[in-house]
Specification:
The complex is a heterodimer of chains A (177) and B (262).
Chain A (H helix, E strand, L loop, with lengths): L4 H31 L2 H15 L3 H5 L4 H22 L2 E3 L5 E3 L4 H12 L5 H8 L2 H12 L4 H8 L3 H19 L1
Antiparallel strand pairs in A: 1-2
Helix pairs in contact in A: 1-2, 1-4, 2-4, 5-6, 7-9
Chain B lengths: L2 H6 L1 H5 L5 H11 L3 H18 L10 H21 L6 E3 L16 E9 L4 H22 L5 E7 L4 E9 L3 E10 L3 E3 L7 E8 L2 E11 L5 E9 L2 E12 L20
Parallel strand pairs in B: 3-10
Antiparallel strand pairs in B: 1-8, 2-4, 4-8, 5-7, 5-9, 6-8, 9-10
The chains are: A mainly alpha (177), B alpha+beta (262).
């Protein structure tokens, strides 16, 4: 009966907020590791939450919500990066345009040194890894997800993950020296 | 296990990917080999360094803001998809012609009806239909009604109370607050006396049904409040709670309360 929808909706909204509130800061932290800037991380999490609200019924039934949210956050990040890389120009805040290089992410470390006061050396080094390596190190070594979980998240065989992780760590050690 | 095997399996060891036999061999070796013990310690230290890397906190109030925005935009999505507000039942023209009697500015009207919660859907529809068709004639009289009205409900018997928020024109981001006195609760939601949320209102009637249950025979009270920008209007509904045995079911009874918000 439609006349009851408002009440149900209010409860749905409460439930959505109650269900996701404990995870939002963790989502932001992971998004920050992926993006390397607070603004981009907040945008990424915000966009994802907007997409998740209509899926409240699905969210209720998920056993390991933290891992599930990390997976969808990763996918959202990849989609966004691809979209950015397809775009030939981007608007800056003052409305001017600048060309997007193929290696857009490689520009990030220098930008972040200027922009973020609380970024440490590890984060800077992470941002210099290629995207595949960075995602893997972040999920496994920084956030502590198991390789078996990451296998499901990224849909990559565990053997590939192990060798990729080994190379990423070696690269990271060089960058931190 | 030899040194080169230990060096190869350090990550597997730290990742917990070795079986118990391999772990025994691994630990047995590195406990007596300073070079391998140092390699394991370095690997652990490196991982700890990564785990402890700092990050700037989100901007102040981000969590609340992000959740609020998600809810708000989620509602808007429903609106776009279905062509009407999913959260509100809408009976356009319910108080036909009445809108023209008020100024062009924002005005909201609250209409209250009441029927037992156990009515079937079809009975509810009939009840709503009946309310709707009689309303035009009733409104002129009810406009002068006091802000507060009184109804009767039976003790422990869930009763649907319908509030219709009438907006002369569409209102975005109105806040609706429902407060119940301590002796009332929303049926099925124990100890829930307050409900507050933000919603858009369509022009015309926006209907909300609340299943109210009285917990003791004192007089109860429902306060419904609608606010938008700096405009606010509230309505107070007194409920006489009757003992179940002597209660008269208010099947056909309804009252209208029309309250301008200006």
């Amino acid at each position: 009966m439609a006349i009851f929808d408002l009440f149900k909706s209010a409860n749905t909204e409460d439930e959505f907020v109650t269900l996701l509130r404990p995870y939002v800061e963790g989502m932001y932290r992971l998004a920050y590791r992926f993006c390397g800037s607070r603004e981009d991380a907040e945008d990424l999490v915000q966009d994802l939450l907007v997409k998740l609200f209509p899926r409240i019924n699905e969210l209720r039934s998920i056993d390991n919500l933290q891992s599930w949210l990390a997976t969808v956050l990763y996918r959202q990040f990849v989609d966004r990066t691809r979209h950015r890389n397809r775009s030939p120009v981007q608007l800056t805040e003052d409305g001017e345009t600048f060309p997007v290089t193929k290696d857009y992410m490689a520009l990030q470390p220098e930008m972040q040194i200027l922009n973020d006061e609380a970024v440490d050396q590890v984060q800077q080094a992470l941002l210099r890894l290629n995207e595949d390596q960075r995602i893997l190190v972040i999920l496994h070594d920084v956030e502590g997800y198991k390789l078996t979980e990451i296998q499901d998240m990224l849909d990559i065989p565990i053997g590939t993950l192990k060798s990729r992780l080994y190379r990423a760590r070696e690269q990271l050690k060089k960058l931190l020296c | 296990m030899q040194c080169h095997e230990v060096q190869t399996h350090i990550d597997d060891y730290l990742d917990g990917l070795l079986n118990s036999t391999e772990v025994e061999k691994f630990t047995a070796h590195y406990r007596r080999c300073d070079q391998c013990a140092d390699a394991v310690a370095q690997a652990q230290k490196f991982r700890q360094l990564l785990k402890n890397s700092s990050f700037p906190p989100p901007s102040a109030g981000f969590v609340d803001r992000a959740l609020r925005t998600a809810v708000k935009q989620g509602r808007a999505t429903h609106h776009d998809t279905h062509g009407h507000l999913y959260t509100l039942s809408h009976r356009k023209g319910f108080i036909r012609g009445f809108g023209s009697a008020v100024a062009a500015g924002l005005a909201l009207w609250v209409v209250v009806s009441l029927y037992p919660a156990q009515q079937t859907s079809s009975q509810q529809s009939l009840s709503q239909q009946s309310l709707s068709t009689q309303t035009v004639e009733r409104v002129a009289a009810t406009i002068q009604d006091p802000m507060a009205s009184t109804m009767s409900i039976s003790l422990y018997e869930p009763t649907n109370i319908t509030l219709a928020f009438h907006a002369v024109k569409a209102v975005q981001g109105a806040t609706i607050t429902i407060r119940l006195s301590d002796n009332l609760e929303l049926a099925g939601y124990q100890n829930r006396q307050t409900l507050k949320w933000e919603t858009d209102l369509l022009a015309g009637d926006n209907v909300l049904t609340l299943p109210i249950k009285a917990l003791n025979p004192q007089q109860g009270k429902i306060i419904a409040q609608v606010s938008h920008s700096n405009l606010m209007k509230s309505i107070e509904l007194q409920l006489n709670v009757q003992a179940a045995s002597g209660a008269t079911k208010p099947v056909s009874e309804f009252k209208l309360i029309a309250t301008p918000l200006a």
